[in-house]
Write a structure and sequence with these properties.
alpha+beta, five-stranded antiparallel beta sheet, 14 helices, 13 strands
Length: 391
């Protein structure tokens, strides 16, 4: 250790002792930022290790504000400590204000590091054990239906398929389909999705042990007539869309761990809704939306919350959705008017949300990234807010 580094380390120790005792985290962070400007990346990482070892365990909030966590991530990346870089980028993403540019920078940097370096070792895949499943699909066009069957054959081959081809709205199709299901585990989905992760039904069965209802993307608050209208800080999940150059991945905050039971979601994207048959039938859809192709998902989420059923997130299916939706259409405007009449949160002005994202070359890369994000959530849960620097 150089004499300069030793001096800075001793200075940081004094700063930490004084500011920690007074719980003045912002003052301490400012001093640490000043030390960063005068030290190499490797030296500053060693100073941060001291902070991790010595900091007051009574603090509820992390020591680092978003900018400091981002600096730590950059230093860790330069020193090829990709695990620490990911944890620090992730912390910066969570601490940054939703409208702060740093939030998007940290989120996109996190995705690139996970994609380029495969940071976290894979966990054991779910076994092929799964519960019998009924799949209800509203599909009017034969070409789309055959495409849906072909690209999801690996898991659909084990399911009861209920196709509704003549419904005047998705809520009507799902209601009719629920009356025909033979199994307690049910998936309601669009005909333009693909579940890309292996063992999709096993993953679904595991998650439905924790929640009576599931979705792949949603929000822990409801505001406006779009599922993401409550703002980025409330949005959760991962979804991808086909692009000419490959696959466009969009990510929002993910739960810390599938068994950490994050707050229930109050809105969702209806391209994928899974649940227990008795719950889906009991909650149902508002008759006013029966003949519409929009709004049924937010309606179901709010009705389930009112009935006391928790809507959870399943984040490891690597969902691909061919359509991003058209929120400017006349049909959408009509459904939005009905939603505002049905539910008070829908009368609030919604926010425009921009997800973190990147374009990947193919579906295999997308599956790997989704698994890395899932492992990151497990790591974050295990660290309990500490970044865990190596000695």
């Amino acid at each position: 250790m150089s004499s300069r580094e030793d001096t800075h380390r001793r200075s940081v120790k004094v700063y930490f002792t004084v500011f920690a005792s007074q719980k003045q985290l912002s003052s301490f962070s400012q001093r640490l930022q000043e030390a960063r400007a005068q030290m190499s990346s490797a030296a500053w990482l060693r100073v941060w290790q001291f902070v991790e070892e010595e900091r007051n365990r009574d603090f509820v909030s992390p020591v680092a504000p978003a900018s400091l966590a981002y600096n730590l991530a950059v230093c860790a990346h330069r020193e090829a400590d990709y695990r620490l870089a990911c944890l620090a980028f992730d912390q910066a993403l969570r601490l940054a204000h939703p409208q702060e540019p740093l939030r998007r920078q940290a989120g996109n940097a996190l995705l690139h590091v996970l994609h380029e370096h495969q940071v976290f070792a894979p966990t054991a895949e779910p076994t092929d054990h799964f519960l019998p499943t009924s799949v209800v699909v509203c599909s009017h066009e034969e070409t789309r239906w055959q495409h849906f069957l072909n690209r999801n054959h690996a898991w659909l081959a084990h399911c009861q398929l209920v196709r509704i081809a003549d419904a005047s709205g998705i809520a009507e199709a799902y209601t009719r389909g629920l009356a025909q299901v033979q199994h307690e585990q049910v998936l309601l989905c669009h005909d333009d999705i693909q579940l890309c992760a292996p063992n999709a039904l096993a993953r679904l069965s595991r998650s439905l042990q924790l929640y009576p209802l599931l979705t792949a993307v949603g929000a822990t608050a409801a505001q406006g007539v779009v599922w993401s209208g409550a703002g980025f800080e409330h949005c959760h999940g991962i979804v991808a869309y086909p692009e000419k150059a490959g696959v466009q991945v969009s990510t929002y905050c993910l739960p810390e761990h599938i068994e950490a039971t994050p707050p229930a979601l109050l809105s969702c994207d209806g391209c994928f809704i899974a649940g227990r048959a008795q719950v889906l039938k009991a909650v149902g859809f508002s008759p006013a939306l029966a003949h519409h192709f929009h709004g049924y998902d937010l309606d179901l989420a709010l009705r389930s919350a009112q009935a006391g059923h928790r809507l959870g997130l399943i984040s490891d299916l690597a969902l691909l959705h061919d359509s991003k939706g058209n929120y400017q259409s006349d049909t959408w405007a009509q459904a939005a008017t009905i939603l505002r009449d049905l539910h008070a949160p829908c009368r609030l002005p919604g926010q425009q949300v921009v997800a973190n994202g990147m374009v990947l070359p193919d579906l295999a890369a997308y599956v790997q990234l989704s698994q890395q994000l899932h492992r990151l959530g497990e790591q974050r849960h295990a660290q309990q807010g500490h970044l865990g620097l190596r000695n």
